[in-house]
Amino acid sequence: VPEKSSTCDLSYEWYWPAVGSLFFSVFYKYIEVIETGGVSLRNLTNAAGNDFEVLVSGPSNDGAGELKGYEISYIQVYDMLPGLFGNLGVQASYTYVDGDDFSNTTDVNVVRQAIAAQQPFAGISEHTINLAAFYEDERFSARLAYNWRSAYLATPRDDIFPFSPIFVEDTGQLDGSLFYTVNDTVRGGMRLDFGVVIVNYNA
């Protein structure tokens, strides 16, 4: 069953004559039929007519919750600067997301179910920051971008004992690229990625 959501967005955008803009938005989503990974007990009957219980794990569509927050974004090319500096630009954004109202996957074990219910919704970082500096002219294109997100829940229930929640700690990623345009059909360059992800197991 596909996920369903009711969404409301309100934004304000300001553009100025030079290449640049300032953007602010708030959003609210009510999400239904959320796809989660869970476990359940099912009664099955074999060919001999014997009934038995089987523990089944896998994706399921259940639960609902609210997702709300806001975003601020800024971009500008500083063409008022002299010479080559007029080709420099900056792009930045900050996003805040509140997903605490979500319920997590259920579990046949009462204790583990209680632990999962106390965790935030999986995959959502409360804070996300994007920063990028770039240079553009007729030949050269260079960009250095940094992305950071705060800690988030990877899963409320691990697949192995003791089936504890798994959190991913604050994570940063740095990307860089440099390109040179020879003509209208030939363009060459390189791209570099740097980052680290630290996984923290919490019961």
Give the helix/strand class: mainly beta
The termini sit apart by: 31 Å
Helicity level, as a percent range? under 10%
Mean pLDDT rating = 77
Total count of strands? 13
Shape: elongated
Distinct helical segment count? 1
What percent of residues are in strands?
A: over 45%
Q: Mind telling me the C-alpha Rg?
A: 24 Å
What is the H/E string? Answer: EEEEEEHEEEEEEE
Low-confidence stretches: 195-203
The major sheet is characterized as: 8 strands, antiparallel
How are the strands of the biggest sheet laid out side by side?
1-2-5-6-7-8-11-12
Task: Provide a descriptive summary of the structure in words.
The protein has 203 residues and is mainly beta. The chain has one helix spanning 110-117; strands at 4-15, 20-32, 35-45, 51-61, 64-77, 88-98, 127-136, 140-149, 152-155, 166-168, 171-181, 187-196, 199-201. The strands form three sheets. An eight-stranded antiparallel sheet has the order 1-2-5-6-7-8-11-12, with no helix packed on it. A three-stranded antiparallel sheet has the order 9-10-13, with no helix packed on it. A two-stranded antiparallel ribbon has the order 3-4. The protein starts with a strand and ends with a strand.
